Amino acid sequence: MATSGDSGITSLRGGAIDAIRSCDLDRKTALAQETASRWFARSLSLRSPLDAVMPDRPGRPDRPVLIPPKLVEKRSLHTQKGRIALLHAIAHIELNAVDLALDIVARFATEPVPNSFFDGWMQVAYEEAKHFRLVRQRLRDLGADYGDLPAHDGLWQAAHATRNDLTARLAVVPLILEARGLDVTPALQARMRETGDLESAAILDVIYNDEKGHVAVGAKWFRFLCAREKRDPAQAFRELVRANFRGPLKPPFNDIARAEAGLTPSFYRSLTSTSNG
Ligand SMILES: [Fe+2]
Ligand SMILES: [Fe+2]
After folding, report:
1. CATH code assigned at 256
2. What is the pTM of this model?
3. Nearest ligand by distance to the CA of 101
């Protein structure tokens, strides 16, 4: 890890923006983790006049090619090709998650929230960077790499729609998209184990446990913002999701893991049919 000053991090927001802008994924993930570590060590200010300008889109390498979500092929776990395709899709989700966590920090660094808000999201950014690296290394062990296959751009688009509203952003990113990960991951792990891919299943264990924490960070701050605005959180969630997220939420839900993270069924149950537009 670079020592203080080497990477030119100007502040928490500045380090987050530099990481978002970086097209080099080793640098992006290293900057995300270094910024997090220095923020936790209380050696960075929240903002600086020297911070770079927030980009419209995160920096990405030339590959993977981005395609509409509908064109991404379905994959079977019974072939090496299918296994790689699935890991590639997970790597892509984790990479987006790095940028999305950093985007919350950088874009909303002027919000009147306690510093512990930024602690939570930098912890998320740190862990997403770890997830991306773990999955990328697994791809390399299988003779592939991130960038070999096309990927879709849906995650960034979903987040972009809420760039002006922190409460809506938390409803969509941690409480819809990351909570969805809690629903689908256990079954995916079971299928990986059935096909003998214990290494990949072990990586998903790490991811699954961390993701419970990410949903919890989202729920904690979503409730905080609702309390400040004197809104009922479950009702506000439903309204914000209908206004900012396309498509229904797909059951079955992992009610236990969701509830442990603070996301109770009153938030999402009624959205399974009514948001189907
Ligand atoms: Fe993750
Ligand atoms: Fe996450």
Report:
1. 1.20.1260
2. 0.94
3. 2
Give the separation between CA 128 and CA 103, rounded to whole angstroms.
13
The domain total for the chain is 1
Distance (Å) from CA 63 to ligand 2 centroid:
23
Q: Which domain holds residue 253?
A: 62-271
Which ligand does the CA of 178 lie closest to? 2
Task: Report the C-alpha gap between 90 and 69 in whole angstroms.
Answer: 14
The residues whose Cβ lies within 5 A of ligand 2, an ion, are 97, 178, 211, 214
Cβ atoms within 10 Å of 93's Cβ, excluding its own: 22
| Residues flanking ion ligand 1, Cβ below 5 Å | 94, 97, 128, 131
d(CA 183, ligand 1 centre) in Å:
14
174 alpha carbon, closest ligand: 2
Count other C-beta atoms under 10 Å from residue 220's C-beta.
16
- Ligand (nearest to CA of 217): 2
Whether residue 57 is contained in a domain is answered as: no
Whether 219 maps to a domain, the answer reads yes
Angle between helices 198-228 and 233-244 (to 10 degrees): 110
In a domain, 249, yes or no: yes
Residue 243 resides in a domain: yes
Whole-number Cα distances in Å, 153 to 25, 32, 134, 147 = 17, 21, 21, 14
Q: What is the pLDDT along the chain (277 residues), one digit of tens a residue?
A: 444 446 799 999 999 999 999 999 999 999 999 999 999 999 999 999 999 999 989 999 999 999 887 777 777 788 899 999 999 999 999 999 999 999 999 999 999 999 999 999 999 999 999 999 999 999 999 999 999 999 988 888 878 889 999 999 999 999 999 999 999 999 999 999 999 999 999 999 999 999 999 999 999 999 999 999 999 999 999 999 999 988 778 899 999 999 999 999 999 988 886 443 3
